[in-house]
């Protein structure tokens, strides 16, 4: 990541000086700011707000209620908990100074990407300063021949792909929302293409991270963008999925992939959930290199038909996509059709035209809003379990039965090729009893996934609501190891407090 040196640290310290501080003691760095009283009685002191303005300029700091509230929640049902102030740094030097300032004054720091998270990750549970990184939106380097790109935190995955359009390359990780790429790193995101191209974990090569005290870390070494490495501990992996609790990601080096020569989509309806999931397993076992294989249950299909003007059967359905040359596509499509028909599929149709393909995927990506529209005024609550693929049929079938038994309105959809699915539950926000049932259902589902050797979250993260399940998932020693890592990097516990651990 060249061109980003000469960082100004707290009180004008250069980055070289920051690096010379004995890690992990951040004390020298903190002292440079003197004291502003930080935060007292649930408020930031005037002097502290002035110091924030001195770093980023007055126009890039806000303490307005509406702005704070807008930054105190994401797309989840978690209650809005606004920060005390929101700041918009313009470059990594400012991020470093902001972190040093907050840390020196004992003020919590909450990184903010685009706020599309589903686990309450941006809620300021202890107040503090929300650092909105959207103004840092440059593509810093593009290495076409090395299949890699370096982006600032405000670049979204759609913006990156728009920029790459004529390059022959693309970045395939695609959560439904147009999230920031560094937010996607922070949550360990994935999406519909993960079955073929992997999740963020497999597609991040290097990260630039401002640590809580302001120090700058390059997780794989400054400027490096190699395909593989056996050099020491995997620091990059540590920050993927860290949910803003270990540092602020200010640049990400990402792996790019060749854009497919041709693409074809198919939809296929089944008489039962079991038949749809069995088809998924059989397609993967037959080594058909499917690029996307998404499951939508009958409730989701009904919602998508209404919301996106589709005309599909209201039945358990697979949306599939294949990438390759024209000849390879024809073979893949034929094999998938045979397999689904062996499993009782009653409707298989395919489309090559870009318009029809985008119509289908737009409908899939709008499924969250389509389901919400089934009950106007209701809120959505999404589960996110992931199990070994062999256990997928039983957990999906059981989940359907549980929904019925509990009298809950829920739609199931998922990235079944990875064993990951979501149950979107609709809740009346004014009905505490229903909310209680939804939370109990979600915990039951999480525990069922754990019992099947799966995880409580395939891609959304732990955030506020799954901390207990994380403990059950990784066990006491796993938890203690995570706590020690956190304490080493963030000894004052100020980086996005209340999340993950
Ligand atoms: C309709 C819809 C569909 C979705 N589908 C998917 C899906 O298919 N797959 C999937 O994985 N997710 C999905 N999501 C969830 C969401 O898009 C992802 O979690 C995404 O990665 C969040 O990115 P963001 O930039 O919005 O992060 P935010 O919501 O702003 O933040 C999320 C967390 O990351 C931290 N963070 C953000 N930026 C940084 C940074 N630069 N440095 C350090 N920490 C940071 C925040 O503090 C917070 O803890 C969906 C969301 C919606 C609304």
Automatic annotation (TrEMBL):
Pfam families in UniProt: FAD-oxidase_C (PF02913), FAD_binding_4 (PF01565)
Reaction(s) the record says it catalyses: (R)-lactate + 2 Fe(III)-[cytochrome c] = 2 Fe(II)-[cytochrome c] + pyruvate + 2 H(+)
Gene label: LDHD
Top-level enzyme category: oxidoreductase
Domain of life assignment: Eukaryota
Cellular component, GO, one term: mitochondrion
All residue ranges annotated as the FAD-binding PCMH-type domain in the record: 79-259
InterPro entries xref list: FAD-bd_oxidored_4_C (IPR004113), FAD-bd_PCMH (IPR016166), FAD-bd_PCMH-like_sf (IPR036318), FAD-bd_PCMH_sub2 (IPR016169), FAD-linked_Oxase-like_C (IPR016164), Oxid_FAD_bind_N (IPR006094), Vanillyl_alc_oxidase_C-sub2 (IPR016171)
Subunit structure: Interacts with CSRP3.
Keywords: Acetylation, FAD, Flavoprotein, Mitochondrion, Oxidoreductase, Transit peptide
Cofactor(s) this protein cannot do without: FAD
Cellular location(s): Mitochondrion
EC assignment: 1.1.2.4
One MF term in the entry's GO annotations: D-lactate dehydrogenase (NAD+) activity
Annotated family: Belongs to the FAD-binding oxidoreductase/transferase type 4 family.
Role, per record: Involved in D-lactate, but not L-lactate catabolic process.
Protein name from the UniProt record: Probable D-lactate dehydrogenase, mitochondrial
BP-aspect Gene Ontology terms: lactate catabolic process
Mitochondrion listed as a keyword: yes
UniProt key word Transit peptide: yes
């Amino acid at each position: 990541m060249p061109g980003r040196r000469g960082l100004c640290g707290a009180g004008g310290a250069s980055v070289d000086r920051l690096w010379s501080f004995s890690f992990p003691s951040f004390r020298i760095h903190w002292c440079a700011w003197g004291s502003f009283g930080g935060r007292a009685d649930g408020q930031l002191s005037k002097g502290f707000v002035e110091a924030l303005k001195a770093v980023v300029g007055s126009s890039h700091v806000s303490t307005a209620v509406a702005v704070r509230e807008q930054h105190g929640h994401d797309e989840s049902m978690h209650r809005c908990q606004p920060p005390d102030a929101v700041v918009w740094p313009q470059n990594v030097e400012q991020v470093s100074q902001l972190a040093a300032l907050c840390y020196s004054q004992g003020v919590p720091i909450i990184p903010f990407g685009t706020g599309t998270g589903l686990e309450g990750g941006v809620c300021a549970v202890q107040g503090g300063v929300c650092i909105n990184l959207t103004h840092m939106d440059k593509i810093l380097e593009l290495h076409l021949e090395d299949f890699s790109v370096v982006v600032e935190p405000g670049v979204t995955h759609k913006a990156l792909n728009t920029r790459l359009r004529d390059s022959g390359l693309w970045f395939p990780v695609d959560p439904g929302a147009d999230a920031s790429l560094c937010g996607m790193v922070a949550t360990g995101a994935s999406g519909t293409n993960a079955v073929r191209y992997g999740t963020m974990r497999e597609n991040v090569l290097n990260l630039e991270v401002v640590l809580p005290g302001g120090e700058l870390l390059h997780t794989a070494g400054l400027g490096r963008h190699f395909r593989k490495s056996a050099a020491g501990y995997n620091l990059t992996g540590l920050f993927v999925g860290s949910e803003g609790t270990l540092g602020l990601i200010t640049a990400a080096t990402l792996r790019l992939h060749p854009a497919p020569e041709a693409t074809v989509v198919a939809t296929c309806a089944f008489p039962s959930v079991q038949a749809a999931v069995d088809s998924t397993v059989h397609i993967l076992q037959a080594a058909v290199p499917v690029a996307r294989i998404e499951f939508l249950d009958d409730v989701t299909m009904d919602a998508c038909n209404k919301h996106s003007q589709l005309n599909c059967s209201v039945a358990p359905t697979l949306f599939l996509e294949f990438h390759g040359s024209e000849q390879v596509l024809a073979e893949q499509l034929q094999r998938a059709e045979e397999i689904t028909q062996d499993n009782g599929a009653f409707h298989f149709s395919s489309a090559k035209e870009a318009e029809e393909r985008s119509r289908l995927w737009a409908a899939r990506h709008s499924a969250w809003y389509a389901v919400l529209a089934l009950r106007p005024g209701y809120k959505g609550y999404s589960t996110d379990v992931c199990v070994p693929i062999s256990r997928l049929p039983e957990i999906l079938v059981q989940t359907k039965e549980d929904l019925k038994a509990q009298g809950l309105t829920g739609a199931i959809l998922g990235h079944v090729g990875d064993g990951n699915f979501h149950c979107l539950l609709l809740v009346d926000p004014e009905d505490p009893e229903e909310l209680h049932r939804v939370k109990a259902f979600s915990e039951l589902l999480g525990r069922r996934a754990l019992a099947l050797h799966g995880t409580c979250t395939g891609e959304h993260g732990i955030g506020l609501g799954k901390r207990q399940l994380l403990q059950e998932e990784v066990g006491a020693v796993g938890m203690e190891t995570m706590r020690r890592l956190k304490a080493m990097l963030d000894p004052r516990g100020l980086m996005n407090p209340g999340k993950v651990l």
